[in-house]
Amino acid sequence: MTGKAIDEIKEVLKDLPFDAVINKIRNYDIELKDVYSIDDLIDYFNNTKNKSSLLNILAKSYPETFTVLLKTKRSPNEKARDENFNLYAFLETEELKEVEIEDETYYKKELGFENLIKIDLYKPSDLNMINMMKLRSQFQPGTKLYAVYVPNYMLGEDNYYNVDDLSKEEKDYIKEYKFKI
Fold first, then answer.
1. CA–CA distance from 129 to each of 26, 56, 75, 89, 115 (Å)?
2. Is 41 found in the same domain as 8?
3. Residue 89: which domain range?
4. Residue 74: inside a domain
């Protein structure tokens, strides 16, 4: 498509709400990136009142653009966090371990989890995974959804399915720094 044709399309779209723009672009069978630069989208994002609607549309229809937009909007602290830490989400369960003290048996609550999954905040499919985990935590008694930022050097795997796969130090770190989603 020529630059002139794209300029004509932009003129037609300029006063429409963003969801209508997306529908029109689909009708023209062209890519969003052919009509709007990432700078145009950032300007639109900064000036729109309904940011979550814009992000939802981009995440569903244009995941690459969604990722670039989110990464561009990060603060210096968020950039540093993303460079030095990995985010993991998990479903916490309560596990009781038997402990014997002076011939008496006691039960101690310990961290139990299902599906410690590495999450990329800038990947729509990973965000969908969190939503599925959230649903499961709502309907499975005794299960809560948590996340934790872990230093890059600490966990080598992307996914852990059993708490026994972690060292005591890793479990203690997760217990101390987890936060509820």
1. 27, 15, 25, 9, 11
2. yes
3. 81-180
4. no
